[in-house]
Structures are given as C-alpha cells and as structure tokens.
C-alpha cells in the first residue's frame, strides 16, 4: 500500500503520470492529484478512475503544502507565466523538499529538462526557453541542485522536447550530458520512466536524460526497455 503525490497533476505530463500510476495500482495504493485548485479538476479526476484523490497543494507557498502520509513525490510542475519560474521551478522544489522532510516521503522524483545545465548556456534552444519564460532553465537547474543537496532519496529525469506521440519507440536514456540521437520524447514515455524509478533502488540518486526514436533491429520497446534504463 503506497501513496504517491503528483505535484502539477493538472498539466499534460503530470496527468499522464497519474494515469499510468492508476493503471498499475495495487490494492490499497493511492494517487494524490496535487494542484492549487482541486475543484477545477473534479471531472478530470473522475474520468481517470482508480483510487485518485484531489490534493490541494501550492508549491509556490511553503504554507500551502501538506505531504502527510505520502510515500513518494513526483514533481511535474513548471511555470505557466512569464516570470513564474523562480517561484515554481526553483522555490517550488525547495518548498516541496521541506514539506517532504516534515513527513514520511521516501523518494522524490523531479521532472526537469534536457539542456538545463549551464554548460549548455549557448545552445539556441536553451537560450530560447530562458527567454520565453524568464530564466526558466536557470531556475530548473537551481531546483535540481536543491534536491541533490537535500537529504532525500531522489531521481532527476531530464526529458527532451515533449510530444503526445503514442508510437512504441526506443527510449534512449543516458547520464547527465550524455550523447543521444533523438531530441524529443512523448509524455507517456516520460511517465513510464518516472514510474519505473519510484520503487527501483537502482534509480536512487541518479540523473538521467531521456528521448525516444524509431527502434533499430534488435532494440527493445515497451516494458522490456524500461527494465534496462536504471542499471
């Protein structure tokens, strides 16, 4: 029996994580749909089915977080406003770490982004993302560092460009700043990687970058590939 809190569950990636968790639920498992305005998502939660409960959580407000009874946290938040990255993508992680330390959280999974490390500061995509939402990538990297320096067990997942593809592709996964052939990955695949990291001690304390591409001869897909990602 486990309780997993998905922060940012109202977003496209967060909701996909919730759906995948529900599909794998065991008896007594619970998923908390963490959003600032639960009433807004009543219909969405109802349509997902399973043991999903709305959970009012505001990562930008340290007093607006309560992780009591939570075993695992998935941070899938990202700012929706031009200047919100500091309060959501950075301080939101800091506040969530503090709330986790006050409760029984055993593992924290952070969905970040490829190119977040400042070693990529002159990469055109990183520059654009930092401009479209003010210093978004800089603040995401600060959030990563806050988690790495905390006492929590963690996994940081850096996906490439997010898509809504439903194809069964080959998931490439490498350590931070590793070489990858692909550039994008579906939200569904990101959710699969998140879930595979939750109860896998081999995923703890790791940062991985993930994209997907067409499979080459002999390459595994689906669950068989997921088993190989954290080794």
UniProtKB/TrEMBL annotation:
It comes from Triparma laevis f. longispina. This is NAD(P)-binding domain-containing protein. Residues 8-198 form the NAD(P)-binding domain. Pfam families: NAD_binding_10 (PF13460).
């Amino acid at each position: 029996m486990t309780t997993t809190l998905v922060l940012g569950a109202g977003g496209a990636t967060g909701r996909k994580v919730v759906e995948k968790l529900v599909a794998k639920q065991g008896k007594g498992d619970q998923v908390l749909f963490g959003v600032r305005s639960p009433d807004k998502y009543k219909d969405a939660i109802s349509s997902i089915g399973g043991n999903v409960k709305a959970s009012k959580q505001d990562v930008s407000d340290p007093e607006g977080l309560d992780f009591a009874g939570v075993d695992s946290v998935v941070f899938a938040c990202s700012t929706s406003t031009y200047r919100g990255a500091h309060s959501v993508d950075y301080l939101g992680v800091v506040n969530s770490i503090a709330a986790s330390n006050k409760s029984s959280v055993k593992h924290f999974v952070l969905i970040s982004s490829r190119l977040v490390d400042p070693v990529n500061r002159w990469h055109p995509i990183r520059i654009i993302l930092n401009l479209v939402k003010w210093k978004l990538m800089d603040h995401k990297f600060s959030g990563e560092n806050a988690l790495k320096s905390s006492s929590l067990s963690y996994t940081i997942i850096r996906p490439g460009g997010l898509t809504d593809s439903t194809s069964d592709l080959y998931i490439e996964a490498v350590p931070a700043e590793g070489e990858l052939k692909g550039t994008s990955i579906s939200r569904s695949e990101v959710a699969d990687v998140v879930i595979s990291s939750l109860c896998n001690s081999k995923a703890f304390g790791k940062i991985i970058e993930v994209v997907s591409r067409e499979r080459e001869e002999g390459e595994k897909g689906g669950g068989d590939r997921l088993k190989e990602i954290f080794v």
